[in-house]
């Protein structure tokens, strides 16, 4: 099976002329020879641009490769702009599998004999179908008079086997690229595939997605910005998830939104606010915010609220990365490029030996032209490409924890341009970031820290007198020990001094006795000095420092 799949992939790549994307001089002689041997697989799409050929090839290879292309479209640091832009058009179009098979999966996963035991009006015709799962509609009875409209998401049968096989082949191709492409070290193909494997396998676990949805819903409870449907976790499993059915307008239906009188400016601004709230307030953000996953509630068109679905991919940031990001954004907004350069060095994103002045100048060259323009005239994707190209000159590697953030920011840019082209992204985001920084570093941060630690302090407060008493006793004991050690050290020094004195006299006596033995005509003087020397040596021995005196 693996050899057949490898043959099918090779044929597809060659029929779309993707071997032309890699210069022949980069390929080892064996691969160049292999291309000539496979003469019956010519490029059948010579009339199409390289980006279009790549997109069509990935779509024909199936869902795993489509999703891989979608992920690559966000890695503007790795691809030429035209190819990255074309990959962003990849569509996850997959024919649905049999609805009765989905019904059987649901019954088996939930441990029921008939789906009618839990669901009413279950529709075997899927509402939507994608590469990983498909969605069915129905109703669930939660009480005697409580019937809820729901959707049931079901993972495709045997999809894991297909994914594992294709991922294994991807890893093999990535290893070949890493060894033979001159730019293989920077492109990091094996790391990219590893990152993709984790993302894809996370999407296969609907319990993980359910937990993500519950977390996001809690973060935006009673919010006017974003609504997250209720997940019925009691009826969710690793391959089945039951969720409230929402009634909203797809955010891409701009004409419908305008016809209903939706405040498009406010809607666009709220999209930016939702993004920054998730990232900087919660450190937990929906990382797959393409238009297909975003709807607008039908009520209150002048106070529009987003509805989010599909929570298989989420991103998180640690405290340090979040603070550095906020400071970077604010420095960008204030055009303080020196600060941007210094923050990159402080965070470790570029090496310590980086020339700050040169880095600052390079950043200014990229960023200065974009300010004071409406969003319609700014391509944030283009800015990112230029920034990544600049960063590579200074040995900066793309931070894995920021990849999902970059992808989400690109979605927000596209969403804002589509809804309200005049939106000033910088003007909208700057007050939010300034407020967040003040809350993190100002007096509000102190108050919040006190509130967060109050339960711990309240628990320890009754123990405080005992802790103080024990600490004072401990300090007194340590002080006595130090004084005792000091006295012992003085005694030791005095003993060493006396011992040295007697030892010096004893040595003199030895020399004198030896001289008298050779020079004196009578034994009286040598014997007398010998006795004195023995006495002096005994005194030196007795006055030596003792180990137990320390």
TrEMBL record:
GO MF assignments? ATP binding; protein kinase activity
Name the lineage. Answer: Bacteria, Pseudomonadati, Pseudomonadota, Gammaproteobacteria, Alteromonadales
- What protein name is recorded for this chain? Probable protein kinase UbiB
Q: HAMAP family, alphabetically?
A: UbiB
Do the record's keywords include Nucleotide-binding? yes
EC assignment: the record states: 2.7.-.-
TM helices/strands, residue ranges: 501-518, 524-541
Residue intervals of the ABC1 atypical kinase-like domain: 90-344
Protein family: Belongs to the ABC1 family. UbiB subfamily.
| Top-level taxon of the source organism | Bacteria
